[in-house]
Amino acid sequence: MEFLQLGIGRWLHVVAGVMWIGLLYYFNFVQVPALAAAAKDNTGAGITKHVAPRALFWFRWGAVATWVFGAVILGQHFLEAFLFLKPAYYPIGVGAWLGTIMFFNVWVLIWPNQKKILGMVQASDEEKAKSRRIAFLASRTNTMLSIPLLFFMTASGGLFRTAVWG
Fold first, then answer.
1. I want to staple 115 with a disulfide (CB 3.0 to 4.6 A). Which of 28, 69, 99, 121 is the partner?
2. CA 29 to CA 51: how far, in whole Å?
3. How many CA atoms lie within 13 A of 68 on its CB side?
4. How crowded is the C-beta side of 42, counted as CA atoms within 13 Å?
5. 36-60: per-residue pLDDT in tens?
């Protein structure tokens, strides 16, 4: 079990996190500005029809994998970290909460609204405009939270090993 938690589980957590955060950065720093420019000359259908749905698939499931592997790494100490029951777990708990908030944003705010924006779900122009704003704000919130999340995700590994195995 220790190998799964600190060996392969930790690497899978990091790899999934790179996928998730990498796509988050792609959306915020590449796709959103590209779509704004494409809208000015009526292009961009390839992005919204082919690229965005695929990227959102990997984005959503990268979030799931990152969260699940993080929980696997914590194992029996999940509640101690998540509920801040022991001071040694506070940094890990902060990372767990940041990841949970970001996970919530992906599945509850970004994805349902992106389906409307991309035409995967019927929506009026007014609903699409509202969806754009919600998805934009949730995505930007995740971008801002990703900086401390990455810190706690990687820096707390040594703290966790010390707290659990001395």
1. 121
2. 15
3. 8
4. 0
5. 888 787 766 778 888 899 999 999 9
Longest dimension (CA), the chain: 61
Domains held by the chain: number:
1
Q: What is the identity of the amino acid at 153?
A: M
Full DSSP string of 28-46:
IIIIHHHHHHHHHTT--HH
pLDDT at residue 23 tops 50: yes
Q: What is the DSSP string of 71-133?
A: HHHHGGGHHHHHTT-SGGGHHHHHHHHHHHHHHHIIIIIIHHHHHHHTTSS---HHHHHHHHH
- State pLDDT tens for residues 56-91: 999 999 999 999 999 988 888 999 999 999 988 888
- Which residue bears the tokens 């704004």? 36
Identify the domain containing residue 78 by its residue range. 2-165
CA 133/CA 164 separation, integer angstroms: 43
Question: How many other β-carbons are positioned within 10 Å of the β-carbon of residue 74?
Answer: 21
**Separate counts of helices (H) and strands (E) for the chain:** 9, 0
